[in-house]
Specification:
disordered N terminus; six-stranded mixed β-sheet; globular; alpha+beta
Length: about 475
């Protein structure tokens, strides 16, 4: 009976796209057999009702005031064969076919015991058809870490059109302006050709209308093309699709499919999930997240730490003064040594703790406080490399450049006169010097008078 019913329904989790199974509770896609069987039966009955609703939704009872009806029985028969409107508006929702992993993540925010395996970009693009349209989602709070140049190379090899979707604009400080952020993204990706840019917020829906317009254009220009959503882990692909699907609406008779599962845990989506967009008459395919290649997350193992590194509210910069002879620890993950230059204001945009100390004491502070005051710390001992950067500073009220470290955040430099800094990161972790994305945050009245205190430590002491 179970196998016969399964032929009418896709045996895939509606939340993460993994194939459902009833054998191994420790493997991905597990769902209890009785629950699976009952859900399939209920959804089959629901689908039969929805097909009737879809048929009768187009049938409208004629206005009896403007026609002659000779038989009262004719009116009675019409009323009997029509499904009442309240049956459409108050019908029960279909039950979601979701695995236990998605259930634990969405209902209880519980870290599941099922471990997700990493997916190589080349392996992912084997299933993507040539001449398709790829929506590349990146995280504005970790732009360089989630951009992944190798993905753009694979998109070109498949001869696909690319829509770059920088997400989480709502997480930037309140002073941001949409047009300026769009211009910034266009400037830092100016080497990419034929790139459509749609800056969005999966939380409040900002920029979603622009995505819809671009999708309409590509659908008319490329009939029959497939549409895929790709991106690194924790960029908000599933949240973006949920918001986009909601903006496009759905028919009253459609199954009440659950939203895609979202969480702060990397690799939430395990398989390809199709999401239909009613107003566009098309389907987007959500793909598993690509693991970070050059981010500190690849050097961390504790899932609680990984979840804390994903910002849950607006980024609030921590502003400190910097002069020669002082160093700044960003958690126990990276260190900035201010070597030369006039005094500057540094704006730290990071979920980690920030600790200011004298350069001569920096190493001893790390040895004593890594994983304590300096949080988080790497899972294993790391050998730090050193990168010397010359930071141009042109305005005392505006930051010209940022130093960005993938997976950690960025630091803006405000003040006149160039300066030299050493950036200490684990071997192989790159450091980027880029135009400032939030140049007007550093102000003297917001300066922290930091004397041996550690900023942002309360977040890491809680829970």
């Amino acid at each position: 009976m179970l196998r016969r019913l399964a032929r009418h329904f896709a045996e895939m989790c509606w939340g993460c796209g993994v194939e459902l199974q009833v054998a191994d509770p420790q493997a991905a896609g597990y769902i209890p057999q009785n629950k699976f069987k009952n859900l399939l039966k209920q959804n089959k009955q629901k689908t039969q009702l929805e097909s009737q609703l879809k048929y009768h939704e187009s049938i409208k009872l004629k206005d009896f005031k403007h026609e002659e009806v000779n038989e009262v029985n004719e009116i009675e028969e019409r009323v009997k064969t029509a499904i009442p409107v309240h049956s459409i508006n108050h019908k029960s929702e279909s039950k979601a076919l979701t695995c236990m992993r998605c259930f634990q993540l969405s209902k209880y925010k519980k870290i599941p015991s099922v471990k997700a395996s990493s997916l190589d970009p080349k392996e992912l693009f084997e299933s993507i058809q040539p001449n398709s349209v790829v929506l590349k989602v990146v995280d504005l709070l970790d732009f360089e870490g989630t951009l992944r140049e190798d993905v753009f190379d694979l998109i070109q090899q498949k001869n696909c059109k690319c829509i770059l979707v920088p997400n989480k604009i709502d997480a930037l400080p309140p002073g941001y302006k949409y047009e300026r952020i769009h211009k910034w993204v266009k400037e830092v990706t100016r080497d990419k050709k034929d790139l459509k840019i749609c800056v969005v917020s999966s939380k409040n829906g900002e920029g979603i209308s622009k995505v819809i317009n671009v999708l309409k254009k590509y659908k008319s220009e490329l009939p029959g093309a497939k549409f895929y959503v790709v991106g690194a882990t924790n960029t908000g692909k599933s949240s973006f699709l949920n918001k986009l699907s909601k903006a496009c609406g759905k028919h009253p008779w459609e199954s009440g499919r659950t939203e895609l599962t979202t969480s702060e845990l990397p690799n939430t989506t395990l398989g390809t999930v199709g999401v239909r967009l009613k107003s566009l008459g098309m389907k987007l395919l959500d793909t598993p997240g690509i693991p970070p290649a050059e981010k500190v997350q690849s050097l961390l193992e504790d899932p609680h730490v990984l979840m804390k590194l994903v910002p849950q509210k607006k980024a609030s910069p921590m502003i400190l003064s910097a002069r020669m002879g002082f160093s700044f620890w960003i958690g126990a993950l990276a260190r900035l040594d201010f070597l030369e230059g006039q005094e500057k204001l540094l704006s730290f945009f990071t979920p980690c703790t920030v600790h200011k100390t004298k350069t001569e004491l920096a190493e001893s502070v790390y040895q004593r406080q890594a994983g304590k005051l300096l949080s988080p710390a790497y899972s294993t001992q790391q050998d730090f490399g050193k990168c010397l950067l010359e930071v141009p500073c042109e305005d005392s009220k505006k930051a010209s450049y940022d130093i960005s470290i993938p997976g950690i955040g960025w630091v803006s430099f405000t003040g006149r006169g160039n300066c030299s800094v050493d950036v200490h990161t684990p071997q192989g972790l790159p450091v980027y010097l880029r135009p400032s994305i939030m140049p007007f945050e550093a102000r003297r009245e917001r300066l922290f008078n930091n004397k041996g205190k550690t900023l942002n430590i309360r977040k890491w002491n809680q829970g």
